[in-house]
Structure prediction request, 518 residues.
Amino acid sequence: MPLTRTMEKLILVTNDDGIDAPGIKFLISFLRPLGRIVVVAPQTGMSGMGHAVTISTPLRIKQLASENGIDKYKTNGTPADCVKLALNQILDKKPDLIVSGINHGSNHSINILYSGTMAAAIEGAMQNIPAIGFSMFNYDTKLDFSFAGTYIKQICQNTLESGLPAGTCLNVNFPDNSSPKGIKICRQSIGFWDEGFEKRIDLHQKPYYWLKGEFIVPDQSSNTDDYALKNGYISIVPVTIDLTAHQNIESLKKTYNDI
Amino acid sequence: MPLTRTMEKLILVTNDDGIDAPGIKFLISFLRPLGRIVVVAPQTGMSGMGHAVTISTPLRIKQLASENGIDKYKTNGTPADCVKLALNQILDKKPDLIVSGINHGSNHSINILYSGTMAAAIEGAMQNIPAIGFSMFNYDTKLDFSFAGTYIKQICQNTLESGLPAGTCLNVNFPDNSSPKGIKICRQSIGFWDEGFEKRIDLHQKPYYWLKGEFIVPDQSSNTDDYALKNGYISIVPVTIDLTAHQNIESLKKTYNDI
Prediction:
């Protein structure tokens, strides 16, 4: 096997909008120059699935026709399932990088916790594989993602070269603006959904409910992802799998007399 | 309305094992002395749903017969949906406390990210409502949870009295031992699933896959939840909705020349 082949980086690509979504097609085209790409993605949209994993129904894998040397598989699982299936059933070695997206709609602030896109990246962090989730603060399904290519290549290339600290990944969001002002390294903003449900009546006179809401970020500090996006920058938030509120440990110890 | 009524605390109870699971029945019985209980829980088991929310199918709510003054509702949604529906459609005021569980099986370490039980508590943290998830490091479906009652009452009473810092909740796990040595305030341990899939062949000769794995925690520091549980203590981890890896921000800023 020639040296260039053994040196070639292996990149696993997934998403939560499904394997036929425009975002993942753009992503694949951007990443092609960086290494060997294997795609393992949900067969349908999985938005809002968070870090769900499938434990009560059988998982299926279907290999699709290769396109330009890129192996593609679709599964009936969630984004987290796709990463697990790829690592354990599909790939012949550990990937050098996991890339998820490009998601239609942002996953900044606390939305990371609802995001299947980011769950796939967090699966990488859990297995100490460098991983990045890309999302777009735009909901136009006909959006041309081309402008993001240079940035995505740069961020993935940097990550392939330098890796990421154990137990972490990157949450990258693009602003709703095809000429970003640049990249900002941010902390996650703390926002909340001001929610409600639209109550409707079905044909049998029974009520059903659709979730609706407005996302509000009271914290407008300039070092947050929300501020960066609203001011035309790409936000990169380093994400940890350690959810401990370390700053609260001492006061809790006093409450519980845990010395 | 008498003063005692207006002073009464409102406690929302949910879980991810479903409204008929033994764990939630024990939980309700423990919490009854602390205030007015309203139960809004999934109609079936939702284990492994993580922080999934339902956005593509209609949500339904069914009110059940009240039992001993406790209002009960079941929904076809996830644990996170149940909290959202409760806050926006069912409860007549903001609850003083959200309690989720008791889960069959632990949700310590990174398993918090897969846990529907903890997603319900995290929903509380997102809305600045004190919230606690309780789980049991035991998978015996006939387990008598009674021994946990004193501790659960104490932890809920403390939380009702003192509240919790904004954007945080508690992840409480009981050891596999009906005589816990006491309570330890911990940080979340960093473990990982050493996973695989069992491949089976269906009646049509097509393969399907079941996730299986072993949970491994290399980090055995005495201040972790894993250590506490394995040594017979109840672990309490304060949890934050801020997933920023703050310690990585400076080095990333250098990589991206973000001054």
